[in-house]
């Protein structure tokens, strides 16, 4: 069965748990050899592996290069979230907030970005805004109390 590159990458990540870092690097390198060196997807996947292995400092530059090189819009927002999370873990909360604020409400990962934005705002000391973002994002998913939670979020923002 012939699988697309994206399907192969998805399979790689699904099977990653429990493998040694050496094995993961070898498998990913083999998959990425199908694409040109310096390709945005190659850079993104390399950065993702660094993150997965707890090598956050090594993930930053490949993420930035992938974003600058030109990912498709779907992967671009994923890369922004992952880079922002990495930057947050490295103490660069201001940069993390800026990146996450670039993700538009129309993005397939907007709610995910809002969760990471709330974390980054909290780490930056802006606890009220972090809570507002979290509540504003959560409100539409609530079955009974969505409207009052939304109103409380607006109150935190001073817009009620």
From TrEMBL:
Q: Which residues form the Tetratrico peptide repeat group domain?
A: 41-156
What is an example of a Pfam family matching this protein? TPR_5
InterPro entries for the chain: TPR-like_helical_dom_sf, TPR_5
Q: What is this protein called?
A: Tetratrico peptide repeat group 5 domain-containing protein
Range of residues in the leader sequence: none
From which organism does this entry originate?
Glutamicibacter ardleyensis
